[in-house]
Design brief:
By secondary structure, this protein is an alpha+beta fold. It contains six helices and eight strands.
Length: 216
């Protein structure tokens, strides 16, 4: 009788622990990205950038945002946002302005489902293999307004040779981008300079100035 009671207690404890583990909430996906200001347009851009980073963290796939389906999905990324807030960081130098970052918390369970759906859709497609791929750091100056920021970012994301555009830093009238391309770096820069919305600078690094004109 005593032994049976001990076995029963152990089984009850095991059942409770399993039930407790199943009821634990899924950890949220939290991402922080730089933004120009607190405007609606900056929020939309920031949430899309945060969504791309969160999907990369969850999937571990650097190319997950290269598919047209995922790019379309990112336009409605706000639907998976659980909470967001702005955080001001002090300026690096007395002459610089304080930087503003957007912290976004997504529903990780929902994003994990999106990752799984994307894997299934990708597996069902047969696409030609392109072995040319590279990541470049691009600095675009002359970003004097939110409109410049939105248009320059869109101009880069709309390019046929660009797979993904991530924003590293924003401030001092310039944006530092990290771009995944499916061509060589030299070819990318050459093609980009043929777009009259961008113009070259005196710097040797991949640094262009935004001209804010219509595409050629």
């Amino acid at each position: 009788m005593h032994r049976s009671l001990i076995v029963w207690i152990m089984l009850m404890a095991l059942g409770c622990s399993v039930g407790y583990a199943d009821s634990l909430p899924v950890a949220p996906a939290q991402v922080s990205v730089p933004v120009m200001d607190r405007s609606a347009a900056a929020l939309q851009q920031g949430v899309q950038a945060a969504f791309a980073q969160a999907m990369l963290q969850i999937s571990g796939d650097a190319m997950i945002m290269s598919s047209p389906a995922m790019q379309d999905t990112s336009k409605n990324a706000m639907r998976w946002v659980q909470r967001y807030e702005y955080v001001e960081q002090p300026a690096a130098t007395p002459q610089a302005l304080p930087s503003l970052r957007l912290q976004v918390i997504f529903d990780q369970h929902a994003l994990a489902s999106l990752v799984q759906t994307n894997k299934i859709n990708t597996a069902n497609k047969t696409e030609p293999v392109n072995k040319t791929s590279a990541e470049v750091q691009l600095i675009v100056t002359n970003i004097d307004s939110m409109s410049d920021y939105v248009l320059a970012t869109k101009a880069l994301r709309d390019r046929h040779d660009v797979k993904n555009v991530a924003i590293n830093t924003v401030g001092n009238n310039q944006v530092n981008y990290e771009i995944n391309i499916d061509t060589s770096v030299d070819q990318f820069k050459q093609d980009l300079l043929s777009d009259n919305r961008f113009r070259t600078t005196d710097s040797d690094e991949l640094r262009l100035a935004w001209a804010g004109q219509t595409p050629s």
